[in-house]
Amino acid sequence: MWEARWMPPEDASDAIRRAAGFLTVGEVAALAPGVSVLDSGSTLVGADVLIGSGTVVYPGVVLETRDGGRITVGPGVRLGPGAVTVLAVGSDVTIGDAAELGPGSVTVTSAVGAPVRIGAAVRLRGGAVVEGPASLGRGSQVLGSVAVRDVVLDGGGGHTEPDPDLRGAVVKGAGRVRGVRLAVGEVVAVGDLADIGDSTRTSQIRIERQRAHHPDAPRRRALD
Fold first, then answer.
1. Residue 146 belongs to domain with CATH number
2. Per-residue pLDDT tens for 115-160?
3. How do 93-95 and 71-73 pair as beta strands?
4. For residue 88, is it within any domain?
5. pTM of the full predicted structure?
């Protein structure tokens, strides 16, 4: 028979965290000064998570690993503000240097045989959902309430790159995107409830050049 045993509140909380595979509040706080966790009490960090120096973690962030999955967060990453959840189940999630997850809710999930790679300076915000397999190259962006899976977004310059033809690929809007590869300088704007990719509504795919939205932007030659 299970026998109740009183524990101080902080000890009880730590026991619950450990049983669920997370670091204790004290262990999360101890990530400082290399990692800035703004509220260790509301932040959940799994035992198989590596976080690079200079990363800022806002309240309510969840980094969870299951079944051998691992999460690696590079240096200078910003997680939040917003409800940011990264779940690695059976495969790894890698987040590159200076990536930004937030503001707004962001959910990233891998599955067995379906890892997620998020490159340096990638931006995910405003309700973005990324499901493995997915490869988001340097400087690419997923903006808005878009759920992407089985996608490859080619990397390029970040959103501050003056020439839109050299920027990483972009998916934005609201809806679902499946089985799509976008090249450098391309964008897909998803309409409400649209299915794009390997669905019965494939004909609705509309891939544009980002320059179409920035016709007066400067032109630069790509670096070799």
1. 2.160.10
2. 999 999 999 999 999 999 999 999 999 999 999 999 999 999 999 9
3. parallel
4. yes
5. 0.88
